Amino acid sequence: MTTAMEHDEDLALRRRFLDRARRVVIKVGSAVLTTGEGLNLPVLDNLAKEICALRQSGRQVILVSSGAVAAGRRKMGLGDRPLTLREKQAAAAIGQSSLMRSYEKIFELLGQKVAQVLLTHDALSHRDRYLNVRNTLFTLLDWGLVPIINENDTVSVEELRFGDNDALGAMVTNLTEADIFVCLTDVSGLFSANPLTNPEARPVYTVAKIDGTVQGMVGKVQSGVGTGGMGSKVKAAKMVAARGGCCFIGPGREPDTISRLFAGELVGTFFLPQAEKLASRKHWIAYTLRPQGSLVLDAGACKALLQGGKSLLPSGIIEVRGKFGIGAPVHCLNEQGESLAAGLVNYGSGDIDRIKGVKTSQIEQVLERPKDSDEVIHRDNLVIL
């Protein structure tokens, strides 16, 4: 059992960060927003009231909302059968309009204007577009609006297959330098074990660091409606913590969860920020860009990256996996296949395959042309994972 002293410590840690939080990103999932009959309007109504209360307290709020596919499924009477990719995309197009119409009506009654923003991963994977999205969101916030963000599921083929709005919410949190990411879900938070199968499972109120112990607590229970389970939410919390932000995972169906959180009640699970904050560009390389290939390194190169803070030289590369061009994001693996670092390459995969294992002084001789760089990945473009 958690002691009264531990409760007090947990509450003190929360208050320390919540009292100074001025920009909040809230993500709410399909399992919370929808029922068998369609959108869960009482939940939407409560969510809007909570967001307006945060706005009245002087905070800026961004909402990342799932629910388009689920709403479209219900609207078209498609039942619970698995949908093809084409059907998911069509359901998203149908459901997104219903979702935004419901939000606009509810927020309008509260005197709050909202704006729809549909994003694809591609919009965040190019630095110029990434910054353009950031500037647009800041303008909306400056105008006093609540941006409501969702993936553009109708055109995001890969995201519909593999993505989830937990990751999108974390990316938006870091993109806008928000102080806290509030992830509302259909469970009450993280537990020491799976509460559905283990009667001795107890709630975890505060996570200082996402390590192996915390990963071991993540159950394999997944919502029947949404795309992300507890694992994706903890991964999102890690992304936010690396940039210096906090994360909260708590019950979205219970009324006043957000108000209770900011009032200092011990609800849900609170994740503390990392002590050493990753710079914005390095965080973008590590957590937003998707690797287009990988480089397998020998033990000496792994040690140089992990302990020496060095650049990656061709001499330490023993294998190239995948095809990619200059400037592409890749992962650096050890010989056991574990990802150690992410970075942007100075050479395409074909040239790296030719110069792997050679000294920098031999690059021009092997390539039979002037070399682009001594380093395959410069340390300024390299992030330890």
Description:
Helices cover 42% and strands 18% of the residues. With 385 residues, it is an alpha/beta fold. It has 2 domains: 4-282, Acetylglutamate kinase-like (Carbamate kinase, 3-Layer(aba) Sandwich); 291-384, Roll (Archaeosine Trna-guanine Transglycosylase, Chain: A, domain 4). An 8-stranded mixed beta sheet has the order 5-6-4-1-7-9-10-8, sandwiched between helices. A 5-stranded mixed beta sheet has the order 12-11-13-14-15, sandwiched between helices. The chain has a two-stranded antiparallel sheet with strand order 2-3. Strand 13 and strand 14 (339-344) form a beta hairpin. The longest helix is centred in the N-terminal third of the chain and has 25 residues, at 85-109.
Based on the model shown, name its key terms.
single chain, Carbamate kinase, globular, 42% helix, five-stranded mixed sheet, 15 strands, alpha/beta, 385 residues, 2 domains
